[in-house]
Amino acid sequence: MGCHPTRCGEFLTAPEEYYEALKGKISSNRKKIVAIGECGLDYDRLHFCDKETQKMYFEKQLHLAKEFQLPLFLHCRNSHEDFMDILERNRSVFESSTGGVVHSFDGSLSEAEKILNYHPQLYLGINGCSLKTADNLTVVSHLPNERLVIETDCPWCGIRPTHAGFQFVETKFPTVKKKEKWLAESLIEGRSEPCQISQVLEIIAGVKKESINKLADVIYNNTIRLFFNKEMK
């Protein structure tokens, strides 16, 4: 539960009322809500919300993670320097939460290292957008398995045949071009679906030249540790 950076303008009419409404939703749905977010910065889509507004309300939402003892689901798009500045300025707040993940990571290895060095409970989320180019694959090949979680970000960030990572995909799904022709056993072309998380795993395993099953166990354990504060038995 949180406010996406491109929607932070929604705070402006009545900032405290909006913030209190978020708190109320979290308080009344504790059994359903497993993270605060997604929140962060998105400088690729400033036509939705300006930088200063994004920064102000990203910082404010960090306190929700501390108050409710929940991890953060974080968004960082073309904004690494400001994103890390805000995290550094709020290190004590982050350390009072239960960790977080920078989802849909597609940055450089240097940016990844800065995120991972920030705190041992801050993970990187990998999806189709993280696996588009040869440079993306090189970055992923160097990331420690113990700090990864995987996602699809459906209906966005699908894995396409033109993407560098597609060569490692083993699981294929039947597709239809038009939604009007959709059948229960098929996908709509160009739309990402939750079942395609298996393809994300296959690409990472292929790039790293590792066992899919062993990698799946590590990433699963990362996920339940972060979001459910448990260890795999």
UniProtKB/TrEMBL annotation:
Binding site for a divalent metal cation 2: 75, 103
Gene3D superfamilies listed in its UniProt record: Metal-dependent hydrolases
Residues that coordinate or bind a divalent metal cation 1: 38, 153
Annotated Gene Ontology cellular component terms: cytosol
GO MF term set: 3'-5'-DNA exonuclease activity; metal ion binding
Keyword set, alphabetical order: Hydrolase, Metal-binding, Nuclease
A Pfam family it matches: TatD_DNase
Entry's family note: Belongs to the metallo-dependent hydrolases superfamily. TatD-type hydrolase family.
Job of this protein: Deoxyribonuclease which catalyzes (in vitro) the decatenation of kinetoplast DNA, which are circular DNA catenated to each other, producing linear DNA molecules. Plays an important role in chromosomal segregation and cell cycle progression during eye development probably via its DNA decatenation activity.
Name this protein carries in UniProt: Deoxyribonuclease TATDN1
Organism: Glossina austeni (Savannah tsetse fly)
Lineage: Eukaryota, Metazoa, Ecdysozoa, Arthropoda, Hexapoda
